[in-house]
Every structure is written in C-alpha cells, then in structure tokens.
Amino acid sequence: MSAIPMERPVLGDDEAAALTGLAARVRELAEATVLTGAGAAEAAAVADEIAALTARLTAERRGAPPFVTPGERRMDRQIANPVSGPLNPFAPPIGLDVTSDGVVRGEFTLGAVYEGPPSYVHGGVSAMVLDQALGMAAAATGTPGMTATLETRYRRPTPLGVPLKVEAKASRVEGRKVYASGTISAPDGRVTVEATAMFIMPQRFVTSEY
Ligand SMILES: CCCCCCCCCCCCCCCC(=O)SCCNC(=O)CCNC(=O)[C@H](O)C(C)(C)COP(=O)(O)OP(=O)(O)OC[C@H]1O[C@@H](n2cnc3c(N)ncnc32)[C@H](O)[C@@H]1OP(=O)(O)O
C-alpha cells in the first residue's frame, strides 16, 4: 500500500457507468459473503474464483480512485466516496440531495454488512453517514472544510434492513469554520442518532485551489 496522490483521472460517462455497475455487483458479493450458508469446500472454491477476478481487475491498476466531471456541485466528482460514491463497493451508496436552502437529505437502507449490535447499524457507520451529510451541508455554504469535530448522540438503536432518513444543515459560518447538525431517523419518524460537527477549510486550501 502506498500513499494516494491528489491528481486524478476523470472518467467518461461510459466508463463511469461500467465501473459503477461493477461496484454494484461487488456490493452484492459482500452481502452474499456475510450471509452465505455455503459449506467450507464451496466457500474455498468461490474464494479462488474471486481471487482470479481480482487479479484481472488489478492488471490495469490506477494509483488513486478516479473522479467524474461534477455537475452543479464540485463535491459530486468523488464517485468513490465511501458513503455516497456509486463506484465504491463499501458505500451503501447513499444518494444525498442538497436543497436550494442548503438542507442535505437522503433515504437509505443498510444491510447485514453494516451490522454492529445484532440487527442494528454499527455506531461508526452511523457516524460516517452523518459526517458525510453534515460535511456536504457545510460545503453547501460555499466554505467546504475538513471535519475538525464530530459529536454523535445515539438516542436509540438504528435498525438494519428498513428505510432510514438522514438530514443535515449548516447553522453558521465563522471565517474558515462551519458548524452543522443533523439526524438519522427510523421509519416511525423517531430520531435514532443526532450529530453536531465543525468543519474547517484548511489554511493551505485558502491560498491554493482545492
Ligand atoms: C477544501 C477542503 C476539502 C474538504 C472536502 C470537502 C468536500 C465536501 C463534501 C464531502 C463531505 C465529506 C465529509 C467528510 C470530511 C472528512 O472526513 S475530513 C477527514 C477527517 N478530518 C481530518 O482529517 C482533519 C484533520 N485536521 C486537519 O487537517 C487540520 O487540523 C484542520 C482541521 C484542517 C485545521 O487545520 P488548519 O487550517 O491548519 O487550522 P489552524 O489554522 O491550526 O486553526 C484554525 C482554527 O481552528 C481551530 N481548530 C483547528 N483544529 C481544530 C479541531 N480539531 N477542533 C477544534 N478547533 C480546531 C484552531 O484552534 C483555530 O481556531 P482560532 O484560533 O481561529 O479560534
């Protein structure tokens, strides 16, 4: 493993569609892996086949995840983002919309690969989802920043396998600092996790282009 460089290739539409299709299949594979009842011999045989497929993909290897040309928002270019990126098999992925008044909203369902306590979402996964949503709300103010603080309050367990909602909004901007808050809620509308965060536009990006 080596450091990942900043410079990125930018995918065309066809390549992005093919690679996000590949990621969707790998995501299914991850869920199939944690849920399979295959016996030892079958699991070992499948592992060999997957190793061969991994070798095929690795034959042409990039030094870093690619970007796509962003739409209205520069933050949309990172299609390998681990929360919202369709190119990342680790991501659910969660589609997050930003309204004209800066509210970030998404609906999502988390399956067995995100389990923490039995039948509930892992708290670190909830924090990651909120970090992303609050970070996008901060970026929507026009001052994108890195997470400096993130506080989560777990009010009740977040269930797996049911539609959840995440919502976030920035509350204020103070120079390079942006404060934001948000929630995850269950289908009955009750909040399961609350978060507040502060994002800072790094000094080094104030003078150079991010
Ligand atoms: C342009 C950037 C790109 C970002 C992309 C945006 C994309 C948008 C969409 C995607 C959304 C993704 C959402 C996930 C975002 C992550 O996951 S980011 C990854 C996790 N966070 C990190 O790794 C951050 C690591 N920390 C750092 O890099 C640096 O410490 C920071 C936070 C950038 C600050 O560095 P700095 O600019 O050198 O700040 P510095 O001048 O020392 O301090 C400025 C002020 O902030 C205060 N401060 C500094 N750090 C802290 C702290 N941790 N706690 C409290 N106060 C602090 C200082 O005390 C100082 O206060 P004042 O004296 O002004 O009152």
Mean of all residue-level pLDDT scores: 95
Silhouette: globular
**CATH fold-level label of the largest domain:** Thiol Ester Dehydrase, Chain A
Tell me the structural class.
alpha+beta
For the biggest sheet, the summary is:
6 strands, antiparallel
Q: How many distinct domains?
A: 2
GO cellular component, one term: cytoplasm
Pfam families: 4HBT (PF03061)
Subcellular location: Cell projection, Ruffle membrane; Cytoplasm; Membrane
EC number: 3.1.2.2
Strands, helices and their partners?
Elements: E1 10-11, H1 13-35, H2 40-58, E2 67-68, E3 97-98, E4 104-108, H3 123-139, E5 146-154, E6 164-174, E7 177-185, E8 191-200, H4 203-207
Parallel strand pairs: 1-2
Antiparallel strand pairs: 3-4, 4-6, 5-8, 6-7, 7-8
The chain binds Palmitoyl-CoA.
Palmitoyl-CoA binds at residues 75, 131-132, 135-136, 139, 144-149, 200-203, 205, 210.
Defining traits:
fatty acid metabolism, Thioestr_dom, 24% strand, binds Palmitoyl-CoA, 2 domains, HotDog_dom_sf, cell membrane, alpha+beta, six-stranded antiparallel beta sheet, 210 residues, THEM4/THEM5_acyl-CoA_thioest, Thiol Ester Dehydrase, Chain A
Fold and architecture overview:
- This protein has 4 helices and 8 strands, in the order βααβββαββββα.
- The protein is globular and about 60 Å long.
- The mean pLDDT is 95.
- With 210 residues, the chain is of the alpha+beta class.
- It has helices spanning 13-35, 40-58, 123-139, 203-207, and strands at 10-11, 67-68, 97-98, 104-108, 146-154, 164-174, 177-185, 191-200.
- 30% of the residues lie in helices and 24% in strands.
- The strands form 2 sheets. The protein has a 6-stranded antiparallel sheet with strand order 3-4-6-7-8-5, with helices on one face. It has a two-stranded parallel ribbon with strand order 1-2.
- It starts with 9 loop residues before the first strand and ends with a helix.
- The chain folds into 2 domains: 10-58; 94-207, Hotdog Thioesterase (Thiol Ester Dehydrase, Chain A).
- The site of Palmitoyl-CoA (PKZ) has 18 residues, from α3, β5 and α4.
- Belongs to the THEM4/THEM5 thioesterase family.
- It is found in: Cell projection, Ruffle membrane; Cytoplasm; Membrane.
